[in-house]
């Protein structure tokens, strides 16, 4: 896990749930559209803003009369006022009373259920939710209820699902809302798309998350709304998580600039300042990260706002600079702001921060309970990427404490979860979306250039027609022998005009063509860069995925090797992030030096690499792996010391079974498992796995299970001889 991923959990916690909050109840409960079935209640309710005490008394009087025709409406209005005043216990009792009574009308039932769901979300009260769900579903399907009211009811149900958490149910409910609303731009559709982006992001489904958030921006633009800085914040958070920090900074800066022309709430302004700091910190820009962190903290304190996000950013910045004691104080201040009723993913971030910082201070025994609590809270929240980020920290700390059995259990959980969330298809879609974002402006410019060329060609055609007409006129004039001198003057002027126009149009055409060529060349450069890892110069994940998708590119037999640097986090912590970058570059240079002509080498992510040895068999795996490991062994990483870079390798042949075509998804999972086996046996070595017999049924089967069934055979694991300071 690279150092830059350490901000991701906080980003997800502090950003994505903001898109799910239901709209706050109005101070005056809104009256339904005409014809008004509850004129008395609505007339009374309108006075709530100016006379809340009198309004509540009048509503209570109506509700106390069991025969009053507007009793149910008065009860709903009273429940709304209790929610506004945040009187949770009274609201729960009144909601139970109202829900126990038979529904008076379909719209009233929908409004009551919406209020109860709003109450449950605010109080975190899930008791009896299973009895409310079928009623809410039935009300949302009642066609006598206006579409808007049905969509509002489902939105509140979705927010409750998001907090329970039942994210798949939340996602399904959002799809129902969007289908119900149709394609016509509306505020409700905008809200649903924002929430859809957040829910998908919380489930690590980043391609549909990006699609939904970009769609939300388009709907907002169609409505003539100011740019939604909340959507920009969530896009920032996604790209921070994906490690695309330049893209994250672009969206964060846009959000900050847009807010300066708007009137954001203090909470909205605080959120943008915090995420801008996060983006800069993730990009390694300490100066800008410090500036925006301090500005966010100052703004939050001046406006008496929670400063959790800014404290989290500042604590990470201090920790990145090696100021662990100072960072611990900041994270402890953050912990004091956390409420036990906060969502589990929020509390998990705080516990992980404390545990990781204590471990960096070599206070491993104190770190252990914090990391364990983070593990439990992450499992409760079931937001898988954050669990993935925790495991390496937890495992390293358990190893230092000598709790090897627990470390092994955690490592197995880590690998199983990693297998579950890894998807080649998902990465391909992310790449396509990123390319769309990168090249959109350039493609538009190319389209403009193409249009200009079409205009130029039309002008040239018109000029040729003009020339033909002029020639015809000249011939007619000559033939008639009328005003010979005037004809000569006219011919000369026409010739001069035609020549000058031709030169001007030719020059304009050449300039447009030059600009088009420049744009096409820039487009090609951007396309190449999108397939190359900026730090190491190797290919990136997209490079391999596109090669896999190219027909015939990997025909024949090959060897897939996965490589993972050992104790990379320790290099970052002990020597700084620049040293971590140099370690990755040195490893990439070594891999290039030992690879054969035609091999494909990519940085798969973080400190993981993939090496495709073209035409190689499983029998060649040990020699290829040991050649790389020995080359690494001969190169000290820190000059003047014996410290060196080591790596754990795992390989698998392609195809893995003789009777099958290459299955890259399965091969990558098996190679990843082989790396895990190498690390479990002491790191700094290799493990090979080859298929036995015919292709097995792979559905839902892990590589470990395949090995147990005998359809995968492990070749003898190898380790080079340990050198001093190998880590």
Show the helix and strand layout:
Blueprint: H1 8-15, H2 39-45, H3 52-63, H4 71-84, H5 88-100, H6 106-123, H7 129-140, H8 147-163, H9 167-181, H10 187-202, H11 206-222, H12 229-241, H13 245-260, H14 266-282, H15 286-302, H16 308-320, H17 324-337, H18 344-360, H19 364-381, H20 384-400, H21 404-421, H22 424-480, H23 484-529, E1 539-540, H24 541-549, E2 558-565, H25 568-575, H26 577-594, E3 600-605, E4 608-614, H27 621-633, E5 647-654, H28 664-680, E6 685-691, H29 703-708, E7 712-714, E8 718-719
Parallel strand pairs: 1-3, 5-6
Antiparallel strand pairs: 2-4, 2-5, 3-4, 6-7, 6-8
Helix pairs in contact: 1-12, 1-18, 3-4, 4-5, 4-6, 5-6, 6-7, 6-8, 7-8, 8-9, 9-10, 10-11, 10-12, 11-12, 11-22, 12-13, 12-14, 13-14, 14-15, 14-16, 15-16, 16-17, 17-18, 18-19, 18-20, 19-20, 20-21, 21-28, 22-23, 22-24, 25-26, 26-27
